[in-house]
Design brief:
The chain is an alpha+beta fold and 189 residues long. The chain is built from four helices and eleven strands. The protein has a six-stranded antiparallel beta sheet, with helices on one face. The longest helix has 17 residues, at 172-188.
Length: 189
Amino acid sequence: MANLTAITALGGIEARDDLFGGVRITEVADTCLASLAMRRGKAARFRKAAQTALGTDLPAPGQRTGDDTRGVIWMGPDQFLVEAETGTTDLATGLAGTFGVAASITDQSDAWVRFDITGRDVPAMLERLSAADTRQMQGGAAVRTPVHHMLCVLVCRDAGIGFTVYGPRASAQSLHHALTAAAASLQQS
């Protein structure tokens, strides 16, 4: 059997952690993700299963519910992205067991890259990359928005100072470069 070593979306053995003045950009390599979509005609069963499986309410449009270990992000009408810490045994399979025919569920863990961005200058940094009004976003707000020409999910963890950017894993290097260049540009202004 081959001896394989897991690598992060940026190609490292360890997740990247970059600091630019007051902005920290951290690659988070240990998040499990699953898409969750309600099937037509199954609303009652879906909502009942959601109460059991998610441990939190379903979020309203533009919101995220949950805590640091498990959350649900609104992605569109009756569509959600469920996030959990790695160590969660097969998130998608667990959700499928609870939701049954009420939902379509797909593992998304290897489809996305996650960067947590913290610091007092984060809204100014993100303004250089996205049209999202990050200065007005409150904790728990979430929006799908282009970030440097890549469709991403932007989650406000802590108003004004803590955000998560989920982007396409295939574009991890480009997204990381855009984030670090924008953070570095704050030092020059």
